[in-house]
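Q: Predict the assembly, please.
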Amino acid sequence: MINKIVQSMADLMSGIKDGSVVLLGGFGSVGQPNALIDGLIEQGAKDLVVAANNAGAGHVGLARLMELNRVRKIICSFPRSSDPVVFETLYRAGKIELEIVPQGTLAERMRAAGAGVPAFFTATGVGTKMAVGKEHREIGGRTYILEEWLKGDVGLVEAWEADRWGNLTFKQSGRNFNPLCAMASDLSLVQAQHIRELGEIDPDHVVTPGIFVDRVLHVPYGDPSGF
Amino acid sequence: MINKIVQSMADLMSGIKDGSVVLLGGFGSVGQPNALIDGLIEQGAKDLVVAANNAGAGHVGLARLMELNRVRKIICSFPRSSDPVVFETLYRAGKIELEIVPQGTLAERMRAAGAGVPAFFTATGVGTKMAVGKEHREIGGRTYILEEWLKGDVGLVEAWEADRWGNLTFKQSGRNFNPLCAMASDLSLVQAQHIRELGEIDPDHVVTPGIFVDRVLHVPYGDPSGF
Amino acid sequence: MSETAVASFKPFTRPQMAQRAAADIPEGWYVNLGIGIPTMISDYVPAGREVIFHSENGVLGMGPAPEKDKIEPWLINAGKQYVTMLPGGSFCHHADSFSMIRGGHLDLCVLGAFQVADNGDIANWATSENDTAPAVGGAMDLAAGAKRLWVLMEHTTKDGSSKLVTKCSYPLTAPGAVKRIYTNLATIDVTDRGFVVLGMAPGLSLEDLQARTDAKLHLPA
Amino acid sequence: MSETAVASFKPFTRPQMAQRAAADIPEGWYVNLGIGIPTMISDYVPAGREVIFHSENGVLGMGPAPEKDKIEPWLINAGKQYVTMLPGGSFCHHADSFSMIRGGHLDLCVLGAFQVADNGDIANWATSENDTAPAVGGAMDLAAGAKRLWVLMEHTTKDGSSKLVTKCSYPLTAPGAVKRIYTNLATIDVTDRGFVVLGMAPGLSLEDLQARTDAKLHLPA
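A: Predicted assembly structure:
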């Protein structure tokens, strides 16, 4: 019987290697896989490259992972936050690399990784610093730049519902980057608020099918707690 | 008040020009916008380029449109069908152009058009006739070819539910190319089995949001009638 | 840039700026509002006119801010504020949401800006080439992807420098993207001729406005 | 190619071919089955072993064919046959469905073929360079995208020509893609050494098999 639901955080996190590229779901505090980030902190992998929309806030979650010097590089669209002290301190000290990516390009690069598209042209960033060093091409009278896929070794995903095949749904704006992190990563790890029996999720309503998911842990943490 | 629901086929079809690129949803008999194809036949536009998975069957729908010499070119993955006589007769007589596209490339080219990606690399077709004349590039040790987006002037879409904002759901395997035709086309026209009040479709279950839809006609035709 | 003594005039307040922009949005448009003053626009859409608001984080069809005791903790906008959903709204993931933006499906995006040039260039994400950790978010996607880009901003910086310039000195968000600017002093179209003044704050003359504007101002043809 | 007189042997039937392939699919694999004989594989998955079948038209988690009075007219596979859905199945659109294929998420695809070469080249979509209206469907996506490609086919054509060749004479579907072949005569891996015979129909010798095979056959190292 296929059963992607594991019983402990240690089982969920097993096999994450030093140097991994980690794709992190969530936008603001909504849909953030906080329990998984804590699990990754506990697991111990270091020299990580983390892609996420933000660069962490306060001294918890991603910020804590960075504060422990476990993150070599961060790829994000918006490093600022309500309390970006950890990132900014590390960045000014030259202790963390930063790759700024427009938010839509970040999402599309993840989607491309999941869809087998190693590179694609986009108008976003043309004529800006983001285009420096990138291939330019005129297509149909407009100039575009070439962007590459962003593959994850590990994807950390927060979901609303999950079943033992790994089918997922998301709640409202908790969807955000989560389905993309799942499809773009070799090892997709999920914390789910609710575990459903197989077949309870309507086949027309599955957002992320289990083919993009490797392991699921039940983490019924409740509502996002603000910013 | 926004109201994308129109009351007649003539209203739905108004403005379709000769020479249009028409993207056609449906796979097999499921999710085929048959009423819209009949509407297009009635509307009269000619010199059309039609993109669809198949090249029509029998003497109805797309096959009928071709038989009336209204289609200059067909873009599809699988011109064969249970009864491909119309297409094959026209093709042998040199009266219709054919562009064969692998099914996934066809879908991805439509999605790219909807997503603002004018061109993308793919492994599909490398080392085959499909790659002849296309740009090749090695990325990360594998060879890919460049494919361009496929934009529609008109998209013909079959949906299960629709509301006055143009939000759509699809039934089971009736989804297929329909959401892609909607997002890839300048003018997206929908036949819907059921008209819902605004808000009746759960925001988490909308498959094609109304931003990709221009006009909707209520066509409660029932179940697909086989092949 | 010289400051000229000006007869008394009344700059538009921020709500008035938002209201002026809102009045110019037709029914049925799909609109993305940037963080800051542009967000206020949704409060001023005339009653009975349906405009559909989009947020980068996969929210389409936002309604007004929630009452304090009716906050839905799973429903925020790109500015990370709690919002509501209108009947007819829908959720999607980030790539689908940015397909709406990058695929040219948004009728309008309204952003704030540091500078706008009279060729339509916009700079709104970093204030120096060497910004430590500049934060671009979705601004470049929106500026490059929306059918129209409007800017809502103060006409001058706090120290009185014009934000409407002949050439942006800050890093660009997108070249040649801005179609219209609403400031506290004027409404200005960006055309092939450059800046064209559509309207001004009460009591302000074109000369007064030009004195506060680096780039040349034109009147409608 | 010469035909050799062969002692009596029993070729595998099509159900046996499908059964042999099915036996080699581990639990938990995501599998796409091509039109024709490969489709039969799903009928032979050993009881209690969960394998998840995918179809190009946005169907994941297919079950067996429906009973005649329980057909769901909205539920077909890529071969346009009515199918059923298992609990845990899901629907998606064509681009999402082909993301599963092209993004390397399918553990296995099993296709029919006209020819397979001992370097793994497969030809399965057109029988001449000048085919009138060849129909490729999803074959190129599947051959290029799945983690593994197996082929299920007769060992020879109706006129006795080997379908296992040193070089495909028909237009390719994908180069170097095939990992394993199940024929009515043998099971053969495609390796760096070429064709390696894993098993043969009862009564058939390697010499008999070689006589029916264009390309050189090897035994496992």
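The first helix of chain B runs from residue 9 to 13. The mean pLDDT of chain B is 96.
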